Amino acid sequence: LLRSITSDIILTAMNQDTILADLMAYATGTWRIPIALNHVAPSTQVQSVAYEASSQTTVYAALQALSGVTGGPEWAMGWVWDLSAGTITPTLTYGSRIGQPVSAGMMPNVTVEPQDMLAGSGLTEDYSSGQGANLIVAYGSADPDATSTDVPMASAQIDDTKGRPLWTYAYQPNSTVTDPAVLATYAEAALTTMNDGTQPVTLVIANDIPGKRLGLDWGLGDDIVWAMSVPAFPSPVSGVARCIGYQLT
After folding, report:
1. Are 188 and 156 spatial neighbours (Cβ–Cβ below 8 Å)?
2. pLDDT tens per residue across span 167-206
3. Which residues pair with 91 in a beta bridge?
4. Would you give the distance in Å from CA 5 to the centre of its chain?
5. What is the pTM of this model?
6. How many whole angstroms separate alpha carbon 51 and alpha carbon 112?
7. How far is Cα 219 from Cα 109, in angstroms, rounded to an integer?
8. Is the separation of the CB atoms in 197 and 169 below 8 Å?
9. What is d(CA 6, CA 191) in angstroms, rounded to the nearest whole number?
């Protein structure tokens, strides 16, 4: 459904949550499966978008571009069960933040400890393509390899390289953007995500542990405390991580 094509659309200086909801109208029209919208933590940031029908821009690509700037909205597709009606409805949750952040001076609601974890848990350090980049170049041209001075572009570089050489990642975040100031917000957002590489924590746990049950005690986007003790680390490691996805078996 998110692969549906947008038509001509021009929205200027509008709340980004409103833009997101308007874009979703192209994915939930006549003859399509209806998608419910779940609006949480409303945004205050505004954005402008412009797409032509001839560009064949999908709703999915437009949503990704909307979220790619600093402070852009978060969104995730999920499902809502209605047991009495016997239905499952696809639902898009969106807003400035999905899930519960940890408050200053407080601890998250859930702590996953070593004794809770099953086989498959682990910590991975990923410096594959793009990960660990400390210099981001965002192009507005359709060709990210172009070198013409007429090509709109912006860059963002980390202040402290921590002794590492510069590692550049160049990309085109949105083919419709020609304003370098807007491209700069994409570059800054990508730099924040990439500059330290990716260190995903995988926690495999049973869903019947009191106080640690999915949908009751924690959910997508929540901050979670974790502590891990495995042979790969001489000393136990721990931290606060955000749940960016889960899998049920």
Report:
1. yes
2. 899 999 887 788 899 999 999 999 998 888 888 899 999 9
3. 36, 78
4. 21
5. 0.81
6. 45
7. 11
8. no
9. 29
